[in-house]
Design brief:
alpha/beta, Rossmann fold
């Protein structure tokens, strides 16, 4: 499969390596200094573009890729207010978009656990919920897209998510229910960016040849 990369930071480099290890060819790399190349022939050769850029550029990058006839896997977060419009465009315009707030298999299993735990906790008002996310100092959005997804699943106020930025932490998410007598906690701690990158490449493999909007629930059948 031919893959284009949009965004060539740390994640982009890891995605490139993993894609090549899985037998794919990276035919075009787009970064902030050569966005005009998305209109070029090399970019059009891609079956799927994997987009990890910035909240300010993600939606525009997706539409530019669609103009070139290229499906998009997007892992950029912090721009979800624009997502419904793109979902509609993908569904009605013969385009293809796969978006996830987190491509880690483990995190998506956490989502499933979080949703079920929230259902179990509803009758027990003595427990106070909280959500904490910890990321590296380079992360541009806060709270993280993953933490927002966890909050939306449980009805927890997004504005009360605790966001911590320190060092080079790949990503830690903690959902906690605390009472006077005990605490219940589920936690996912990424050890590196490898899991996110692998999930994005697997998503690209899944998306090839499809139309419409997809998420990790479709891929993992959760």
């Amino acid at each position: 499969m031919n893959i284009a990369l949009i965004g060539y930071g740390k994640m982009g480099h890891i995605i490139e390596r993993i894609a090549q290890e899985r037998g794919h060819k990276v035919v075009c790399i787009i970064d902030k200094d050569n966005t005009s190349d998305m209109a070029g022939e090399e970019f059009r050769r891609a079956d799927v573009a994997i987009e990890f850029s910035t909240p300010q550029t993600a939606a525009g990058n997706i539409r530019k890729a669609w103009e070139a006839g290229v499906a998009v896997v997007c892992g950029t977060t912090g721009w979800q207010q624009e997502l419904p419009a793109l979902q509609h465009e993908a569904a009605t315009g013969g385009k293809a978009l796969f978006w996830a707030s987190n491509f880690s298999i483990g995190v998506n299993l956490l989502f499933a656990l979080n949703k079920r735990l929230a259902e179990l906790m509803k009758p027990y008002g003595q427990y106070t919920p909280s959500i904490t996310e910890i990321h590296h100092i380079h992360k541009l959005d806060a709270p993280s897209g993953t933490a927002i997804t966890l909050a939306e699943q449980t009805g927890f106020p997004v504005g009360q998510i605790e966001s911590i930025r320190e060092g080079e932490v790949p990503g830690t998410h903690i959902v906690r229910y605390d009472s006077k007598v005990d605490s219940i906690e589920i936690r996912h701690e990424a050890k590196s960016r490898e899991g996110f990158a692998l999930g994005a490449v697997i998503a690209a493999e899944f998306l090839k040849g499809k139309q419409g909007f997809y998420s990790m629930n479709d891929l993992l059948k959760l």
